[in-house]
Design goal:
heterodimer; A: Immunoglobulin-like; 8-stranded mixed sheet; 9 helices; about 30% strand; B: about 750 residues; mainly alpha; Rossmann fold; two-stranded antiparallel sheet; 34 helices; OST48_N (chain A)
C-alpha cells in the first residue's frame, strides 16, 4: 500500500523549483504507516522545501528503480525494526540506488534489526547490537531520559564536527537530544565522517536489564560512539546514518531540554540540526560544478592540440556552488592545479579572480611554465573538501619536445667551428684553383703516383 | 656458332633471365597473400605500417617531428627521432609517385608488396656483386639463389613490411658499389657507396655491419701490403661522406663519433691517412732515415691513440659497447644481464639445423666458394672472405642474423657452382687440365665483347701472382701459353662425356632439390602472417583462427577513443596499429623500467597490481591464452620472462623463485605455488576456464589438469574473450563508490553479505 499522505498539489506545481539538486522524489520507509504521525513536523519542513514525499510501509512491495532508471531521488529508511526488505527491494538495490546517484538517510533505534545492520556494514558503518542504547548518567535529559538515562543531551559546539559545509555551528542554536543506538565508523574509510558523537561519559549498553550489574566493559564508549555520520560516495551520492529515529520526531524537535545538573532550561536544536542534515544529504547545498576548464598558451586564446616543453600557459577553471535553490559563484583559496605524469611535476595553487555583481561562477586561474619533460600530462584539479562534492577535473594534454627546426640554427659558442669549416672550404677552393691553373708544374708528381 | 651471334644471344638472354629471376623471387613470396589476404604480418611491421600511414597522411615534416602520444603512455615516444625512416619514406615515395600518375593504390598494398619487390632488386644486386668476383654466369646463379633462398625469404614475404625487407638489398648493393670503388679507385663509386650506405643507415640498425666490415676490409688490405691509391681514394670518400650523411638520421645522430661500434671506421680512416703520409714521406727521404722516422712515428701515434682512447672511454665521451653488442660477443651475456633482449626469440642462438633449413645445398657449396676466393685472392675476394667469416659467426650467435649471412652464402655458392659447371660443361679439355694444374682457366667465350671484362680480370689475376699492382695486360697474351699446354695434356678418362654428364646431371638434380626445398620451406614455414593462424582439423579441412583481429576489432569499436590498454610488450605494435588504442609498452623496448612495471602488474597479486593499474590510468588489460586451442605462444608461457624483467627493477615485489614449486617445476595446476595462483596473469588466464569444461578443464598447452574451482577476480572484470579464448580482455574496475575494497564489493555483488564486521573490537 502506498500512501502519498502529504502529496499536495502545491508541491507538484513547484517540482521544477525543488530545493534539491537531484530531484524532489522521496521515498520514506516506515515500519507501519501509523508511525508517520510522529514525524509531522519533519514532513511539513520537507514539504516547504518542495519535496515530493512518498510514505511507504515495509510490508508492501516497492521498487527503487525501473529499467535502470531511478524512480526516486532520495530514500529515507526510518524502519529500524525491518526484518526483510519490502518486496522488490534488497541490500543490493539500495547500493545500486546509491550507485545511480540516489541519496539515502538511514536511522536506527535500540530495536534495530539485522537487515539495516548488514546494509550499513557495506558503508563501513557498524551499529551496536540489538537492544543496546547509548546511556549517559551525566548528560541526560531529566524529562525524556528520566528512567534509563538514555535520552542524552549533546552539545553541538563541542561534539559536532566542524564541517561548515555540512552543518554550520551557528545554525544549531540548542543542544541536540538523542535516544537510540550507537554506531562506529571505519576510520580508514575516507568517505565517511562522524558528524555528531557522544559525550565523554557515555557508553553503549543493553537497555533492557539495567538492574543487572555489569561484568565487562562496554564495547563502545565516549567519543567512539558516533550518533550521526555522513558519507559522500565517490559518485557524490550522499548517505546519512543516524542512531535514533526519535531525534526526528515532533517530540524531540521542539522539546524543552533539562540537562541533568543544569538549572537552565533550553530548547532542543534537533529541528534545525535535522533540517541542515537533510539539506546536505539531499543535495540542497554543498554541491560543486565544474562549469568550464580552459587552457591556452600565453598570448593565445584557443586550447592547442598539444603544448611544447617549457611553454608558458594559462589554466583556468570555473566552479559554481549550489545552495538555496540556485547556483552561486564558488570562492576558495585552496584550489590547486597538478600536472601529473605518473607523478606530479608541478603543483600550484590557483588564484581566484575577484568576484563582482555579475559573477555567476568562481574563476580560478594561474599562469605557469610547463616542465622540461615531454609526455602525456594530466592537468588535474583534485578538490575534495568535507561537505562539498568531489571535484576531479582531468584534462589530458600532450607536451611535445622541440621540433627539429625549433632549435637555434646557429649558436655563438660554435663560432670557432663555423669559421674553421668555412676556412677549410675556402682553402680547398683556393688550393684547387692554384693547383690546377696556378702554373705549377705538377706533371712530374702525378705520373710518379700512377 | 659464331662469336657475334652468341654475344647477341647472351645480350638478350641475360636480361631475360634476370627478369625471370625477379619474377620468381617476387611470386614465391606471395604464398601468404594467396592463402590468407593482403595483410601486414607479425609485430614490427605493424609499427612500420602505422608510421607509413602517418607519413602519407601528414607529410614528411610532421613525420620527422612526430611525437606519438598513443604509445608508451604516459611517456610518449618521439617517433621521428627513434626510428629508421628508410622503409617508410620508400613506401611513401612509391605511393606518391603512383598517385601522381593516377594509380590509386592503397598504401597498405604498397607496404605489403614492398619487400617482394625489393627482393627482385636484391637478386639483381647479387648478380652485379658476383659478376665483379667471377663472371656474369656466376652472377646469374647468385641472383637465382638469393632470389629464392629461404634465409632471406623469411624476412621478405609479402606483408612482412620490415626494415630488413629493403635493408638486404641495400646491404648487397652497397657492398657491390664498395667493391667497384676499390677495384676502380674512383671517387665516383666511393660517393655512390656512401650514398647507399646512407640509405642503409636510414633503413636498418644492421648498418653497423657495413660500418665495421668495410673498414675491416681496408685494414686487412693494408696488413696484406696491398695499400694502393685506389683503396685510399675509395675508402676516404666513402668514410667521410658516408659518416656525415649517416649523422643526418636523427636516430643515429652523433653515434658515429661517440660509440665504440663506429670506432673501427674512424680508426682505419686515420690509419689510412697516416699510411698515405708515410708513403709520401718515403718518396722524399732515404730508406734509412725513413725507417727511423717510421719507428718513431708509429710509437708516437700508438701512444697518443691508446692514451686518447682510454681517456675518452673513461670520461664517457665514447660510449661503451651496448648490451646488444655484448650479446653478440658472449651469448650468455644477455641472459644474465638483460633479460629483455634474451626474451626475444629472434635473439636466441641459432640451432644447427636452421642453417640447412634456410640454405639447403648452399651451405655445402659455401665453403667451396670461399676456398675459390682464397685461390684467387684479389682485393674483392678478400672482402668476400671477411664477410663470410664474420657473417657466419654472427649467424651462429643470433637467429635473425642468418639474414646477413644469406647473401654471402649465395654469392660464394654461386661461385663454386659456376666453377663446377665451367669445368664440366667445357667443350675442350684444356680448361680441365688447366684447372687440375691449379691455374686459372680463361673462358672459351671470353673473346666476346660482353665477356671482355671478365676475361681481363682472369688474365690479370694470373699476372697478379707475380706483380702486385694491377696491370692492363691484355688477356690475349695469356692464351698462346695455354694453347701450348693444351696440346701437351693427355685425355683423362673422367673427362669423357658420360662422366661429365653424370656430374652435370647430379648438379642439376641438386638445383631441382634446392628449388623444391625453398618452395616447401617458404610455403610451410615463412608464409604465416602470425596474426591469422591456420590449423587443420582431423578431416583435413582448414580452420582459420582469427582471434587476434577479432579482439583488436572489438577494442577499436567498443572502447572510448583514449582508452589505455595494458598488455605485454609483444602486442604493443599490433594493438596500436589494428585497434588504434593507447598502449603502455610496445615492441620498441626502449624503456626497461616501463616494461618491468607492466611485468610487475602481471606478476603480483590483485591488490599490488591494482595500484600499478590505477597509477597508469589503465582501462583494459589484454592477455593471450592458448590453453583452449593449444597455442603455445601465449602469455603464461612468456610469463617467466615478465617475472624476470620485473624482478630486475622491482626485486622486493617480484621474485622468480616464488613461481617455482619446491621441486623446481613451473606448474599451473593443483601444484602451482600460491604466488603463481595469486598473480594477476594466472587469474586472468584461468578465470572461468574451469566452467568451460564443467570443472574438468585441461590446459592443452601445458597438459595440466586444472582445479575445478577456478580463480576469482575482483579488481578486473571480464570484458571480452574471443571465439577460441586466444585473446582475453579485462576491464579495470573503478574504485568502489562506497570506499570498500574491491574484493568485498565483488563479494557483495555476488550476494554475500558481510556477517561480521572488522570494526567490532571485541
Amino acid at each position: 500500500m502506498r500512501a502519498s499522505v502529504l502529496l499536495s498539489s502545491l508541491a507538484l506545481a513547484l517540482v521544477a523549483q525543488a530545493a534539491s539538486l537531484t530531484g524532489p522524489r522521496t521515498l520514506v520507509l516506515l515500519d507501519t504507516l501509523d508511525e508517520a504521525d510522529a514525524y509531522m513536523e519533519l514532513w511539513t519542513d520537507m514539504q516547504e522545501r518542495h519535496y515530493n514525499v512518498t510514505l511507504h510501509e515495509v510490508s508492501s512491495p516497492v521498487a527503487l528503480s525501473k529499467h535502470d532508471q531511478r524512480l526516486f531521488d532520495h530514500l529515507m529508511i526510518l524502519s529500524p525494526k525491518m526484518k526483510d526488505y519490502p518486496k522488490g527491494m534488497s541490500a543490493k538495490s539500495v547500493v545500486g540506488f546509491v550507485a545511480a546517484g540516489g541519496n539515502v538517510m538511514i536511522a536506527g533505534s535500540s530495536e534495530l534489526g539485522n537487515t539495516i545492520r548488514e546494509l550499513s556494514r557495506e558503508f563501513d558503518v557498524e551499529y551496536e547490537n540489538k537492544f543496546t542504547s547509548v546511556l549517559d548518567h551525566f548528560n541526560y535529559d531529566t524529562h525524556l531520559g528520566k528512567e534509563k538515562h538514555d535520552a542524552i543531551v549533546v552539545d553541538p559546539t563541542t561534539h559536532m564536527a566542524k564541517a561548515e559545509k555540512i552543518i554550520a555551528q551557528d545554525k544549531v542554536p540548542g543542544p541536540i537530544l538523542f535516544r537510540g543506538v550507537a554506531h562506529a565508523v571505519n576510520p580508514s574509510n575516507s568517505l565517511l565522517q562522524p558528524i555528531l558523537w557522544a559525550p565523554q561519559e557515555s557508553y553503549s549498553w543493553e537497555s533492557v536489564n539495567l538492574e543487572e550489574s555489569a561484568n565487562q566493559d562496554p564495547t563502545l564508549s565516549g567519543k567512539g560512539i558516533s550518533l550521526v555520520s555522513v558519507m559522500q560516495a565517490r559518485n557524490n551520492a550522499r548517505i546519512a546514518f543516524l542512531g535514533s529515529t526519535e531525534m526526528l520526531t515532533d517530540a524531540f524537535f521542539s522539546a524543552p531540554v533539562n540537562k541533568h545538573g543544569d538549572e537552565k532550561e533550553t530548547v532542543s536544536g534537533n529541528r534545525l540540526f535535522i533540517e541542515e542534515l537533510t539539506k546536505w544529504t539531499f543535495q540542497e547545498k554543498g554541491a560543486l560544478d565544474v562549469v568550464a576548464v580552459e587552457h591556452h598558451k600565453v598570448g593565445e586564446w584557443e586550447a592547442p592540440a598539444h603544448y611544447r616543453i617549457k611553454d608558458n600557459m594559462t589554466y583556468t577553471i570555473s566552479l559554481a556552488e549550489y545552495h538555496d535553490g540556485e547556483w552561486h559563484p564558488f570562492s576558495a583559496d585552496d584550489v590547486q592545479l597538478e600536472l601529473i605524469m605518473l607523478d606530479p611535476y608541478i603543483r600550484k595553487t590557483l588564484d581566484q579572480v575577484p568576484l563582482d555583481d555579475q559573477s555567476t561562477v568562481g574563476t580560478f586561474t594561474t599562469t605557469l611554465q610547463l616542465p622540461d619533460q615531454y609526455g602525456v600530462f594530466k592537468f588535474t584539479v583534485n578538490y575534495k573538501r568535507p561537505g562539498l562534492t568531489y571535484v576531479e577535473s582531468v584534462t589530458t594534454v600532450g607536451i611535445h619536445p622541440f621540433r627539429h627546426d625549433q632549435y637555434p640554427r646557429f649558436i655563438s659558442q660554435a663560432k670557432p667551428y663555423y669559421t674553421s669549416a668555412a676556412s677549410m672550404g675556402v682553402g680547398l677552393l683556393v688550393f684547387s684553383v692554384v693547383y690546377l691553373w696556378g702554373g705549377l708544374d705538377s706533371s712530374v708528381k702525378t705520373t710518379k703516383k700512377a | 656458332m659464331s662469336a657475334a651471334s652468341s654475344s647477341t644471344i647472351a645480350r638478350v638472354l641475360k636480361p631475360t633471365i634476370l627478369i625471370l629471376i625477379a619474377v620468381v623471387a617476387i611470386s614465391s613470396r606471395l604464398f601468404s597473400i594467396i592463402r590468407f589476404e593482403s595483410v601486414i604480418h607479425e609485430f614490427d611491421p605493424w609499427f612500420n605500417y602505422r608510421t607509413t600511414q602517418h607519413l602519407v597522411k601528414n607529410g614528411f615534416y610532421d613525420f620527422w617531428n612526430w611525437f606519438d602520444e598513443k604509445s608508451w603512455y604516459p611517456l610518449g615516444r618521439v617517433v621521428g627521432g627513434t626510428v629508421y625512416p628508410g622503409i617508410m619514406v620508400t613506401s611513401a615515395l612509391i605511393h606518391n609517385v603512383l598517385h601522381f600518375f593516377n594509380f590509386p593504390v592503397d598504401i597498405r598494398n604498397v607496404c605489403v608488396f614492398l619487400a617482394p619487390m625489393f627482393s627482385g632488386l636484391t637478386a639483381f644486386s647479387a648478380y652485379l656483386l658476383t659478376k665483379e668476383l667471377k663472371d656474369s654466369s656466376a652472377g646469374l646463379l647468385a641472383a637465382a639463389f638469393l632470389g629464392v633462398a629461404p634465409g632471406y625469404i623469411s624476412r621478405s614475404v609479402a606483408g612482412s613490411y620490415d626494415n630488413e625487407g629493403i635493408a638486404i638489398f641495400l646491404l648487397v648493393f652497397t657492398f657491390y658499389l664498395w667493391i667497384k670503388a676499390v677495384k676502380t679507385g674512383s671517387a665516383f663509386f666511393g660517393l655512390w657507396t656512401a650514398l647507399f650506405y646512407f640509405y642503409m643507415v636510414s633503413a636498418w640498425g644492421g648498418y653497423v655491419f657495413i660500418t665495421n666490415l668495410v673498414p675491416l676490409h681496408a685494414f686487412t688490405l693494408l696488413l696484406m701490403g696491398r695499400y694502393s691509391n685506389r683503396l685510399y681514394v675509395s675508402y676516404s670518400t666513402f668514410y667521410a661522406v658516408g659518416t656525415l650523411l649517416s649523422m643526418q638520421v636523427p636516430f643515429v645522430g652523433f653515434q658515429p663519433t661517440r660509440t665504440s661500434e663506429h670506432m673501427a671506421g674512424l680508426g682505419v680512416f686515420g690509419l689510412l691517412q697516416l699510411y698515405a703520409f708515410a708513403e709520401l714521406v718515403r718518396g722524399y727521404v732515404s730508406p734509412k732515415q725513413f725507417r727511423t722516422l717510421l719507428k718513431g712515428g708509429i710509437a708516437a701515434v700508438s701512444a697518443v691513440a691508446v692514451v686518447g682512447l682510454t681517456l675518452l672511454s673513461l670520461s664517457g665521451v665514447i660510449a661503451p659497447f651496448t648490451g646488444r653488442f655484448y650479446s653478440l660477443y658472449d651469448t650468455g651475456y644477455a641472459k644474465i644481464h638483460i633479460p629483455i633482449i634474451a626474451s626475444v626469440s629472434e635473439h636466441q642462438p641459432t640451432a644447427w639445423t636452421a642453417f640447412f633449413f634456410d640454405l639447403q645445398m648452399l651451405i655445402f657449396l659455401f665453403p667451396a666458394g670461399v676456398y675459390l676466393c682464397f685461390k684467387e685472392l684479389k682485393d674483392e675476394h678478400v672482402f668476400i672472405i671477411l664477410y663470410s667469416v664474420f657473417a657466419s659467426y654472427f649467424a651462429g650467435v643470433m637467429v635473425r642474423l642468418m639474414l646477413t649471412l644469406t647473401p654471402v652464402v649465395c654469392v660464394s655458392a654461386a661461385i663454386a657452382y659456376s666453377t663446377l659447371l665451367d669445368t664440366y660443361l667445357e667443350k675442350s679439355e684444356h680448361v680441365l687440365a688447366a684447372n687440375l694444374k691449379g691455374t686459372q682457366s680463361p673462358n672459351v667465350i671470353s673473346d666476346t665483347p660482353a665477356e671482355a671484362a671478365g676475361s681481363k680480370a682472369a688474365g690479370n689475376s694470373m699476372k697478379k701472382a707475380a706483380a702486385k699492382t694491377s696491370t692492363k695486360t691484355p688477356a690475349k697474351t695469356a692464351e698462346p701459353e695455354i694453347n701450348k699446354s693444351q696440346s701437351k695434356t693427355k685425355r683423362f678418362p673422367i673427362f669423357n662425356w658420360d662422366s661429365r654428364a653424370m656430374v652435370v646431371m647430379l648438379l642439376t638434380w641438386f638445383l631441382f632439390m634446392f628449388a623444391w626445398h625453398c618452395t616447401y620451406v617458404t610455403s610451410g614455414s615463412y608464409s604465416s602472417p602470425s596474426i591469422v593462424l591456420a590449423s587443420r582439423q582431423q578431416d583435413g579441412s582448414q580452420v582459420i583462427i582469427d582471434d587476434f583481429r577479432e579482439a583488436y576489432y572489438w577494442l577499436r569499436k567498443n572502447t572510448k577513443e583514449d582508452a589505455k590498454v595494458l598488455a605485454w610488450w609483444d602486442y604493443g605494435y599490433q594493438m596500436a596499429g589494428m585497434a588504434n588504442i593507447t598502449t603502455l609498452v610496445d615492441n620498441n623496448t626502449w624503456n626497461n623500467t616501463h616494461i618491468a612495471t607492466v611485468g610487475k602488474a602481471m606478476a603480483t597479486s590483485e591488490e599490488v597490481s591494482y595500484q600499478v593499474l590505477r597509477q597508469h590510468d589503465v582501462d583494459y588489460v589484454l592477455i593471450l591464452f592458448g590453453g583452449v586451442i593449444g597455442y603455445s605462444g601465449d602469455d603464461i608461457n612468456k610469463f617467466l620472462w615478465m617475472v624476470r624483467i620485473a624482478e630486475g627493477v622491482y626485486p622486493n615485489d617480484v621474485k622468480e623463485t616464488n613461481f617455482f614449486t619446491p621441486r623446481g617445476e613451473y606448474k599451473v595446476d593443483h601444484d602451482a605455488t600460491p604466488t603463481m595462483k595469486n598473480s594477476l596473469m594466472y587469474k586472468m588466464s584461468y578465470y572461468r576456464f574451469a566452467e568451460l569444461y564443467g570443472g574438468n578443464a585441461v590446459d592443452h598447452v601445458r597438459n595440466a589438469r586444472m582445479p575445478s574451482e577456478g580463480p576469482t577476480l575482483s579488481v578486473l572484470e571480464e570484458a571480452y574473450t574471443t571465439e577460441n579464448w586466444l585473446v582475453r580482455i579485462y576491464k579495470v574496475k573503478d574504485l568502489d563508490i562506497l570506499g570498500r575494497n574491491l574484493k568485498d564489493a565483488t563479494a557483495f555483488d555476488k550476494g554475500k553479505v558481510r556477517k561480521v564486521s572488522a570494526l567490532k573490537r571485541k
